[in-house]
Each structure stands twice: as structure tokens, then as C-alpha cells.
Fold each of these.
Amino acid sequence: MKLERRKKEILIVVAILIIQTIIFIIAEINKSYIHMDEAYSLGLANYDKTEIQENSDFYDNWHTKEYYEDYLEVNENEKDNFSPVYENQKNDVHPPLYYLLLRIAMGFHIGTFSKWSGIALNIIIYEFITIFVYLIIKKLLRENKNHQIKSAILALLSSVTLASISNVIYIRMYALTTLNIVITTYLHLKLLEQNKSNYKLLLAIGTLALIGSLTHYYYLFYLAILVIMFTIKYIKQKNYKELAKYLGTIILAGIISLAIFPYSIKHIFFGYRGQGAISSLTNIPQAIVSICEYIFITNVYIFNNALFIILLFIFGIIIYRKSRKITQTKTKNKYIKYIAIPTLFYVILVSLSSPYKTLRYIMPVGNLIFILVIYYIIKISENIFKESTMNKVIISIYLLILIMPVVSNKVIDLALGRKFRSEQETSYSNKTEIAENLKNEISIPINIISNFTNMSLDDILLYIKDFKLEPEVLFSDKRNITEIIKDNSSLPALYFFDSNHNRFLDDILLFTYINESYIVKDFKYSEEKVKNITSQKDTSNGILIFINDGQNNDEILNIIKNTLNLNSTRYLERLNSSDVYLVK
């Protein structure tokens, strides 16, 4: 009988892994662009410099698309060279382990750029994340009827939220950091069950501490809180022998980590990111604003915009319990605080220290946040609903989470009106005009939102106009510009680049499609300069123009048209850091 249950459990887990993998593959097929940090991931794992802009010939020279592809791919003569994995990280702000794994994955596509290198790696990582999330949930729900099936469904749902899908299709180290955190959590829950140290378990905890510290420094936030909690636990029990073994394991892992990558000290304490994080931790007024922003991010991506509805449901259950004087079950779950407290402190510390308030920094605990909220709903609903009713309630919440992205997008359309949702800037410079129109017509209390963020009112309005509930790095809005550039790849391209706004890697993918391109550094608005650059190029069919921030777009475009005897300007799209035009 036990063997049959075990087989059934394995089949359930395999089924949810297959389902989530299909969802991840569909999302990746629809991924239309890459963020500059994803370009950094690929370049740092294989290139001989941290940025392609460091090349002496980068500016003011014509380059073919292969020049840019070289930054994003492993070439035949580089396939056995792994030194950039370590050397580049010395000069960057992250430890090297993820880049080593990415470099290995990129080795399966020698001589070609493929987004699938990083995505396939993350899909494999997420298979293990879901397995360990399932094991954690199973411990939390072990007293519940049919806890294995419930745990499997909850594990699956936690892995297909917008946050989890973003985690998979984002070619960065956050999926690996997530895996480190969930395995570390599971191992510590196992340690709670031990009356005496299991050396294999301690070895596993030490190994994960080592791996985590070599993946992302934010992992140390989570680990530090767990270590403090277990230290307090052993001291309360006066079990100093076990405490010594446990702390000895963690300290040894730290020593080995520093022996492998001593530059971590420089990154954490003396690097610009580390110093920025440390100074942010002392900025209390900013803390409340940052936490509010992360609550918004949690709602949108970890709960698919359903968190506040779920919180209302929880509040209603609490009121009902009090009004009916229903006492909650006194039995305590010994595991829950060892998940909840580290997760809470991680979110707070990341809210205070992260350089940008964005999803990526809390993705590593996204699954844990999700299961903690659902677990709490199950606990407070005890003694209120029958088992069958409770199952229906949970299923209803699951369905709500699944359909909320579609519902939310429809609501935003209605609130703004399709006219404004479809209105397109003709250049970045006219965004203020669109924001003013939105301000007069918008039907939601936008001023309330501005109290909780440092964003300007114009930026909030434009953010809402273009906002769509989907995985954060799907970049579906870049699908059109990508196709347009591919269709016009035979045209020469000029990128007028203001070096004070250096985010070229946000645009590099498009340059891997263009046959010939030229980066004009700090243009001085000279027709003679344009004439010299294009003298050997055929521009009779037109030219692609990229202009990044800090410049006078109209003046540059007029110079292009006058110099090359071109008549029309077609604004194509705003990228993350530049405007793109087709001049004919």
C-alpha cells in the first residue's frame, strides 16, 4: 500500500512538472526581446570584457551584425575558454556560479545566439524548485486530508504565477537563487526534525550555503535570518554541541566561498552596489515607500493582481470568526515560522537595499510568499468550512488567480478608454503631451498612487497607459519593432549615442539583425559628420536611426534628411533607452 502511494505521488509530481514546462516553453516562444541585464548575463559569461562598449573600435566605426552577436554568443575559437566567467565577475557586482552554468548552456549553441540557452537552464532549475516547494508544502499540510494532492496543486500554481514565469524567462541568476533558497529552507525544516545532528544533512546545508553565496549576495539575507533563528533555538535548548556543529558548518562554507571568490568582500563592502545597499538600509523614511512599492509588485506578479481580493477574503474570515466566537485550533505548526520569518525579513531587507524597486529582487522568495498566504487561508478557515466546502474555496481562489491577468487587462482598458490605450508617442519628447491628455480624461484617482512612489505623475500615467498584466520580461510590446527591424535589416543604421545615457545593451539585440550599423558618439549636430559617415553607403532606400536620451531628436532627424536628401520620417517605437526611426 505504501509503495502504491509512493508511485502515485511520483506520478502527480511528474504531471505538474510536465504542465509547468509546457507553460514555460509557450511563454519563451512569445518572448520578443531581452533586457540589458540579460545581455549582460550572456556577455559576462563569454566575452573578454564586461561591456562591448569597452572595445576601442566600438564608436565611430561601421560594424556588421556579427560584431554584436559576438558579445551574445560563444564562438568556435572561444568554446574552451571559460576565463571570462571568473574574470568578468571580478569587475562586475555578482559572484560567478550562475555565469558558469550559463556559459556551459551557451556551449550547446556554438557560433549562434539563442535565447534558449538561458531559458533551458532556468526551466531545468525550476523543475527542482517545484519539487522542493512541493516537499515544503507537504510538510506544512501533513495533517490535512489528501495533503499530497493539495500540495502538488499548490506547488504547480506557485510555479505558474506571473512572477515564476518571469523568473524562468529572465536570463539572470534569480531562478538559481530561488532554488538555493527553497532547498536551504527544506534542509532546515529537516534539521528541525533531528534530535541529533545528521552529518549528511549538515553537509548538505553547508553545500547550499556555499552555492547560494556564489550565486547572489541577497541569498545571504535569507540565510542570515535562518542562522539567527537556529542559533536562538539551540541556545534556548542549551544544546551548545549541536550549535557548534551547525555554526561551524556555516562558517566553513563562508570560508570556502571567500577562498573561491575573495572579490565578494570588495563587492559587498566597497563596490558601488554594496555601498548603496548599506546606505539604503539606514534610510528609514524611504523604507515605507519602498515596502509599499514591493507590496504593489507582489500583488501584480506573485498573485496575478489578486492579492487585495484575497486579503479582503482573509479579513472577512477573521471578522466572521470573531463575531461567531469561533476559536482557532491551538495546534502549532513547528515549520511555519522558519519559512515566514526569513521570508518577511528578506522582503524588508531587499526593499531597503535594492537599487531599483522591481520584481527581480523578490522573485527568489516569490513561491514562499505565495504558499504562506494560501497556507494562512487554510488555517484561519479551520472549524468554519467542511472539508468539501474548503476545497471549493481554495479552488475558487486558484481560479481567481489564474483569470485575474485577463480580467485586469480588460479593466484597465475600460478605465482609460481604448483611445488612450492605443495612442502612440510620435517621439519620446511628446510623452508629456500624451500624459496631459490622460490626466484630463483618466477615471481613476491617480493622485493617491503618487503618494506611494517617487515616480512623477506623468511617468505614472504613461506606465498605466502601456501596462499589461503579463510576465515582466515577455516584452510583447517589442514584437512589432523586432519584426520591422528584421524586415529592414539591409538598410544601414546610425545610432546617435549620448555617452551620458549609456544603456546600449538595452538595444543590442536589434543590432544583431542589422547588416551594417554605426555608433555615433556624442554627436555635435554636423551635416559634414553625417556626410562623411554615410559617404560609402547606399541610403537611397532609407536609413534606420536610433537616438538615445539627452539629445534633440528633431534636429538630428532634420540633419539626416537634409544631408541624405531624404523626405519622410517614420517613428517606429520607443525602446528601453532610445527612439527608433525609419527615414526615407
Note: The chain has a mean pLDDT of 89.
Amino acid sequence: MFKIARSCIIPVYFCCLISIAACGGGGDPTTTITPTVTPPVTPPATNGTVSLSGKITYDFVPATYSVTTKTGKLDFSQTTAKPVRNASVKVLQGTTILVTTKTDDTGNYQLSYTPSGTSLLKLVVYAESANPPIQIADNTDGGAVWTMYDTLDGTSTTKNLHAASGWTGTDYVDASRAAAPFAILDSMYSASKAFLDVRTFTYPALTVYWSPKNTSQSGDKTLGFITTSHYSSSVNAIYILGKNKVDTDEFDKQVIVHEWVHYFQSKLSRSDSPGGSHSSGDIADPRLSFGEGSATAIAAMVMNDPLYVDSLWSGAGTLYAFGQSVETAPSPTDDPNPGVFSESSVIRLMYDIFDTGTNESYDQIGVGLGTFYDVMTGSLKTTDAMVTIGPFISGLKQQSGVSSSVVDTLLLHYTVGAITTQWGDGSASLRDMYTDVTSFPSTKSILLGGGNPFNSWQQNQYYVFTGNGAQVTVSATSAAYDVGIEVFQAGTSLATADKYLSGTETLTLATEANKKYVVVLTGYKSTTGDYTVTTVFTSP
């Protein structure tokens, strides 16, 4: 078997793998943005119970993009006041919490409290929700949860709060960007609720870090150097860009929810993606193309919006945006290499599986989010194969009411092939990712494509063997170039060898009889040109 390296077209990058004060520093016990603070009033020394109600809102600025003109922006002229939904609301007197409640889906709250003494009273709204458990915190302020607050006089029965965007007309005032954490919370609440509306389950806790210091440089995340908006599985947290005149993602709902889907994949489903940079037009490792493509597609599904838009700042200090339709391919195409290795193909394939009522002859399927949930948390999570479009499609075809022939017609349109198994049978290009090792000892050689990224199709190959109850040793050798190997069983990494710049990588693991194991071989040759890697499998 051999692979021929091919050039890639890279027109667009996709992003992937929160606390502020108009009146100054840290709140109690959070970092705080305070959009409006009335003059402090000393409450009466003796008060009875006070009933208080009101509405909590935030500025939402739509990110717009025209697929015709290929231009976009944050449209501040269309800013609307949206309700802060399902957020924690507390009354504090000094540092004592007198009462806790939450806003409803219209942003309204009701509570009663009894003041005691003359310490300052505050109504505090936290950028956090209890169900699902999400906190928007500040990675540059010790993980403090963002809040906004106003003072209370101990007698009034109504108090409304509104979080403003902080936009001046040309840029942001960081100390006034109260809307940012609440916009992020609201997008993630919408995504979470979409699945809760169709299935009953419990979300694991999630922390989302946003700061006006979060910038597109790598380094210490506690200083804001987060590289890009991304989900980190190692700490189960999402980081969102916020640096004024660099990249501010708080109103880019599709970007935010794309990262939320990575959390969903990690905690409720499964992702085997190797991560790394990825672009439209790449010939990617199919683990990457599925992980990223499905995240963009599902973000469109749960937000009920097929337009993916990402706003950012130009070098001249001007806000603009780029985007794409997850439903309709542009002309000229953004998918020059369609199929299982294409993120764009996976995006539109997944969205076509979901949407209904189209006039496209090749798209006669439309399943709900519940079916997506069932596949993602069921067979896709437990597959022996690597998580690619293969086990998703094979699992989808097992769902009640899903026609395999209708799915195959859609797959043909995207040059994927009529997938029938988790291993990609029916799709020649996906099945060729797997080389079966049927006996020990066994030697396999392959040509990988140098000069391509480590997460490309050209630099990866999977080997599959069945455990025999004994130890198995795997060695991979490239005469002059660096390679790495990793063994997985149902998505769990069991052993890794990736230490040297060239030479042989070797690992040994104990196996269980009749279980399937997948060895992922990855090459790292940086210069253009094919090179041979030989992998040897032995067992006593």
C-alpha cells in the first residue's frame, strides 16, 4: 500500500482546539463588570422582608456575512436586548448571601430577602447556570466567575439590570464590556437546551474562560495567551478570544457553540481527533475532518442557523467577518477535494442528514437532534474503530426509520461512498486508512507524504489487529525521518512511542483475547516527498 502526497488549497482557517468592571476590579466573590451602579445607599437599620423582581438583559450584536459578496461584520446597528436566561441571581449584604434564585427563559426573576444591619446591599447576576452547569470565568483573574451588579436601597421592589456591549462606535472599552460573558453563556445555554429538549440526561460541569486579555498568541493562559478560541480536554474548559482590536469572539455564536460541541464530544460522546490547525481544502486525517466538520454542522443545528460567521479585526484596526453556509457550497467551491478527508464535505453531509424540506434530489433525509444524540452517545462512543464519518454513518443506518439507500444517495453526492461498517467498508478511501494485521509476526510498509501536516491524511495510517491474550510489540521505523505510534482500544489510548527525531519507535502492551486494537502511525517529515515507514508486529 502506498500514499501519494497531494497539494492542498487553504483559503480559510476555522477556529477550534470568562469577570469585568466599569467601576474597577474584583467583585465579591467574582470578577465583575458593572454596567450601571446607582449611588450606594445605606439601608435602614431595621427592615422587614422585601419582595424584589425585575428583568436581566444583555446587548447582543449579530455577526453577519454575505456568501454573495464574501463580506461580513458585527452589525452594531442591529444590536438587540436579549434576556439573560437561566443565570444565577443573588442578593448580598456585605459578603453575606441573603437569597439565591435564577432568571427564567425571559430573563425575569423574583425573590424575597430580609436585610439585616446597615451593610451595603447588592443585586448580583452571575454568568453561570445550574442546569446545565456552565460558568463563564476569567482565566486572567484566578478563574473568577463574571458578574454584574447594582446596589439596592432595601425598600424598592423592582430592579432591572442590563449588560452593555462596551462598543464606542470604533472599538470597545474593556471595562464596559458587560455583555460579553452573558452572550457566551446564552449561546451555550441555547446549545445545551436543544439536546435537553429531545433527550433526558445530565451535562457534566463546564467552565468557559473569557477575558478582554485573551489574545491569539500562544503562551501562559493565565495571562491571556490562549492562541485561539478552543476546547481543552485536559482541563475540560473552553477558552474564548476577547482582545480588543485583535479578535473578539463573544458575539460569534457559531464559533462559541462549535467549541461547545467539542466539549459535548469529549464528555458525552467521543472524539479521536489529533487536533492541530485545519483549513478548508485540507486533505485531513479523517479523525480530524469528522471532529471539526461535525462540530460546525451540529453548531448550526442547535442554533437553528446554517450560516457560520467569525468576526475579527484587520491589521488596520477594522472589524470584519468571514463565513460560510453549512447548507450550500459556494461557487467557486471551497471543497476542492471532497470526501471523507474533507472538513467541508463532512460539514454539509452532516447538516444535510439533519435538515428537512430541501429541494435537493440527493438529500431526502432529515433526522432530528435526538437521533444525532443517540448515535453520538451510543455506537459512536463505543466503536472499536477510530471516530471518523465511518462509525457515525454505520450507527446512523441502525436507527429506526433511517433508510440506508437514502443515506447512500447523500454519501455519493459528497464522494464518500456507501459506508456499511464502522471501518468504512463501502468507502474505498476510508477503508484504505486501515491495514489489517492478521497474524504475528507481520511486517507492513507504507509510503507517507512528507511536507504535509501531522494531522493530514498523507501522514497517517491505521493498523488493526485482534488481541490474543498475550503481549504484542509494535515497532515503526523510518530511516531518516521522525514517526510516532499510538495504540487505541475502543478510543482509549493504551501505549505511545514517539520520542526520537528518526529511527525506530517501539512499544509493548498486554492484549485481551478477541478485542480489536488500532495502531495509529503518524509521520512528521517536514520536507516534501514520499518516504517509507515499516511497521513490525510481533507476539511471543
Note: The CA atoms of residues 22 and 348 lie 43 Å apart.
